[in-house]
Amino acid sequence: MANQYEEAYKRSIEDREGFWGEIAEDCHWYKKWDRVLDDSDEPFYHWFQGAELNTCHNALDCHVENGRGDQLALIHDSPVTNTIKKYTYMELTDEVARFAGALAAQGVVKGDRVLIYMPMIPEAVIAMLACARLGAVHSVVFGGFAPKELATRITDAKPKVIVSASCGIEFSRIVSYKPMLDEAIDMVDTKPQHCIILQRPQETAGMMAGRDLDWSEAMTSAKPHDCVPVLATDPLYILYTSGTTAQPKGVVRDNGGHLVSLKWSMKAIYNVDPGDVYWAASDVGWVVGHSYIVYAPLFQGCTTVLFEGKPVRTPDAGVFWRVISEHKVKCMFTAPTAFRAIKREDPKAEFMKKYDLSCFKALFLAGERSDPDTLNWAESNLGVPVIDHWWQTETGWAITANCMGLHHFPVKYGSTTKPAPGWDLKVVDAECNPLPAGEIGALVVKLPLPPGSLPTLWRNDEAYKTAYMEEFPGYYKTADAGYMDEESYVYVMSRTDDIINVAGHRLSTGAMEEVLADHPDVAECAVFGVEDSLKGQIPIGLVVLNAGVDRGKDEIVKEAIQMVRERIGPVAAFKTATVVKRLPKTRSGKILRGTMQKIADNKEYKVPATIDDPATLEEIDEALISIGYSRARDKWGS
Ligand code: COA
Ligand code: AMP
Question: Does this model's pTM top 0.85?
Answer without folding.
Answer: yes
